[in-house]
Amino acid sequence: MFALRFAHFTDPHLPLPPDGPGWTELMSKRLFGYLSWRRRRHRIHRPEVLAALLADIRAQGPDHLVCTGDLANISLPEEFERARVWLEATAAPQDLTLVPGNHDALVPVPWARGLGLWEPWMRGDPGTEPEGAPGEGGLFPSLRVRGAVAFIGLSSAVPTAPLLATGRVGHPQLRRLEALLRDQGAAGRYRVVLLHHPLADGTVRARKALTDRAAVRAVLARAGAELVLHGHAHCARFAALPGPLGPIPSLTAPSASAVAHGRYDAARWSLVAVRRTPDGWRTAVTVRGWEASAGAFGTLGHYDLLMPAQTGAKEEGVAERAA
């Protein structure tokens, strides 16, 4: 039986550069984010917790890593440069799939000095890229096929007005998303949709929500998917989204660098193991979380998800040979 094990973590929020931003860089929405970081967020997002999470992931030996955004805090050019170094130390581009978050697009930044520095980890497999220049709709949705699993990445990261953290996918991505989902489903692959903002209503407040989430859900309801992974909520959430063959599970986790604070849990990550059974797909999820008393990560829970195989899908061996 085919099996793939992959790790999902989100919202690492790497520390701001020690010198901090200049005054000209703060003459924008960045000012609010910077004040928030100085007041409290630097005490919540701890680099030692993130380092322990990555060490725990490596110890579990997954086949692939997935990160659903928010490496940055206020979208400084130096943050993108430092995050590029962090990505290089974390995993090779072919071994880590990344989608951006709202903090990675807090304000407009030229592609070459901003998200373009992370392009190797966001770009799809060769020959699968949409038409257009990167940063102008030419990178997402991305498609990465690993074995019989298809990772489909969306960008919901758009600059917004102060005090807003909303996201948007947009019609060009939605049109290609539906085609990708149908094609990968027909090929018999397990389809994982990745984006930063949640799709279920009520997961986050309206000022932080995905504005076109209903349109994305409508695509999933028509074309289907096996799993949705997102970030942004900074807490553990499970939702069931409508699909053509039954509910599509949607999962997230707290920030990968967070200590417990207020109503928010400490850092967690999920080890997702996928295999095909005679009745469809079986997804085994192991949740690993930061235990401050032990100064280490431990297993917090384990559960299985059962999903029917796609109607009209090819045999498993065909999907594996095509991967």
TrEMBL record:
Limits of the Calcineurin-like phosphoesterase domain: 4-235
Pfam family, one: Metallophos
SUPFAM superfamilies: Metallo-dependent phosphatases (SSF56300)
GO molecular function list: hydrolase activity
Keyword Transmembrane included in the entry's annotation: no
Domain of life: Bacteria
Keywords linked to the UniProt accession: Hydrolase, Iron, Metal-binding
EC number from the UniProt entry: 3.1.-.-
Family label: Belongs to the cyclic nucleotide phosphodiesterase class-III family.
PANTHER family: CYCLIC NUCLEOTIDE PHOSPHODIESTERASE CBUA0032-RELATED, PHOSPHOHYDROLASE
Protein name: Metallophosphoesterase family protein
Organism: Rhodocista pekingensis
